[in-house]
Write a structure and sequence with these properties.
This protein has helices at 4-18, 42-45, 122-128, 143-151, 157-162, 172-181, 195-214, and strands spanning 22-23, 27-28, 48-56, 59-64, 68-73, 78-84, 93-98, 104-110, 116-121, 255-259, 262-266. The protein is of the alpha+beta class. A 5-stranded antiparallel beta sheet has the order 1-3-4-5-9. The protein has a 4-stranded antiparallel beta sheet with strand order 2-7-8-6, with helices on one face. It has a two-stranded antiparallel ribbon with strand order 10-11. Helix 1 packs across helix 7, helix 4 (143-151) crosses helix 7 (195-214) and helix 6 packs across helix 7 (195-214). The longest helix has 20 residues, at 195-214. It is globular. The protein binds a DNA duplex (16 and 16 nucleotides) through loops.
Length: 284
DNA sequence: ATGCAGTCCTGTAAGC
DNA sequence: TGCTTACAGGACTGCA
C-alpha cells in the first residue's frame, strides 16, 4: 500500500531513469483502469520529452515538454518501472510507454486496479491537485494549520490523518505509526486535541515519514521499486500490523480496532484513551 | 457543509 | 482437499 515514503522512493528511483527521455507512444494492454485511458491523451505524450519527476502527496507527477503532465497514483498494488522492451510482459500490466532510444519502456502494473493514470494540461493539473482536494505536504504543514483542521472537526484523529485535504500523503500505516510516536489515541476527537498535542502530532508525522523514506518505504505484500527492490521500514513498525504483539516500549499487547473503515493498531498504555469525547472547557 | 458508509478489485489466508 | 468467506485499503460517490 504505497503511501508517501513508498511513492517518494519510486520517484527517486525513476527520476534518473526517465528525466530527459522521450516518450515514443503508448500501448494499452489488459483491462481498463479506474480512470479509462482517453485516446486523445496520446498526442500529448508522443515525441514529448520528460522534463521532471516529482511527488505530490501520493501522486506521481511526470512533467512533459509542451503543456501536458502524466499523473499516476499507485493505489494499493500499483507499480511503475522501467524495463528493457524485450522483457516479458508481467501479469496485470495495463499501460506501456515505449521510450525513444535505449530499447526501454515505462510500464504500469496494478493487480487490484485501485491505481489510476491520467494526462492533464496545466490548468487541469492545478485544479486536480488544488488545495481543495490536496492539503499541504507533511513537511510543510504548520502546527497552526494542523491545529485548525483538528479544531474544526468531530472526527477522530485517525480519520483526520487519512484525510488528504488535511495533510497529503499519509495513509493507514503512517497514520498509526505517527499516532504512536505522538502518544495519541487514534479514537481521540479532533476538537478534543490541544495545541501542544497538535504540535507533537505534526512533529511525529515528519519524524516517521522521514525515517520511512530513509528506509525506502515499507514492503508488506507488494511494494517494490526499481528492479524489484523492497523497502525495509516494515521492520521498524511500532504498532501497524502488530495486533496482539507486545508494545516495543511497554510490552502491553497492541490493540486492534476498526476506525474510519480501516484496521487500526495502537498501544492502549502508551496511547491512553484520556478523553475520547470532549475536552472539558477550563473551569474558572 | 459535514461525516459516514458503501464501492471498486483481486490475491491471500482463514474457516468449514 | 476443496470450497467459501473475510480481509487488505485510497479515492471516490452518494446519502443522511
Amino acid at each position: 500500500m504505497p503511501e508517501l515514503p513508498e511513492v517518494e522512493t519510486v520517484v527517486r528511483t525513476l527520476r534518473p531513469q526517465l528525466c530527459g527521455r522521450t516518450i515514443a507512444g503508448v500501448r494499452l494492454v489488459g483491462k481498463a483502469l479506474r480512470r479509462p485511458w482517453d485516446p486523445a491523451w496520446e498526442r500529448h505524450l508522443c515525441r514529448r520529452q520528460i522534463t521532471e519527476l516529482r511527488r505530490r502527496g501520493k501522486w506521481i507527477i511526470i512533467g512533459l515538454s509542451g503543456d501536458a503532465t502524466l499523473v499516476v497514483h499507485l493505489g494499493m498494488t500499483g507499480r511503475l518501472y522501467v524495463v528493457p522492451r524485450r522483457a516479458a510482459l508481467e501479469p496485470h500490466t495495463h499501460l506501456v510507454f515505449p521510450l525513444v532510444r535505449g530499447e526501454q519502456e515505462l510500464r504500469f502494473r496494478d493487480v487490484r486496479r485501485f491505481g489510476s493514470v491520467g494526462v492533464f494540461t496545466q490548468p487541469e493539473l492545478m485544479h486536480f491537485l488544488g488545495e481543495q482536494r490536496l492539503g499541504p505536504e507533511p513537511f510543510e504543514l504548520s502546527t497552526a494549520q494542523l491545529f485548525k483542521s483538528l479544531q474544526g472537526t468531530s472526527r477522530n484523529l485517525k480519520a483526520v490523518l487519512l484525510d488528504q485535504s488535511v495533510v497529503a500523503g499519509v495513509g493507514n500505516i503512517y497514520a498509526d505509526e505517527s499516532l504512536f510516536e505522538a502518544r495519541l489515541n487514534p479514537r481521540q476527537l479532533g476538537r478534543a486535541t490541544s495545541r501542544e498535542e497538535a504540535c507533537r502530532l505534526r512533529r511525529s508525522i515528519v519524524k516517521v515519514l522521514t525515517r520511512a523514506i530513509e528506509h525506502n518505504g515499507s514492503t508488506i505484500i507488494s511494494f517494490y521499486y526499481g528492479d524489484g527492490e523492497s523497502g525495509s521500514y516494515q521492520n521498524e513498525f511500532r504498532v501497524y500490523g502488530r495486533k496482539g504483539e507486545p508494545c516495543r516500549r511497554c510490552k502491553t499487547a497492541i490493540q486492534g480496532i476498526r476506525l474510519a473503515g480501516r484496521a487500526t493498531c495502537f498501544c492502549p498504555r502508551c496511547q491512553p484513551t484520556c478523553d475520547v469525547r470532549e475536552r472539558q472547557a477550563p473551569s474558572g
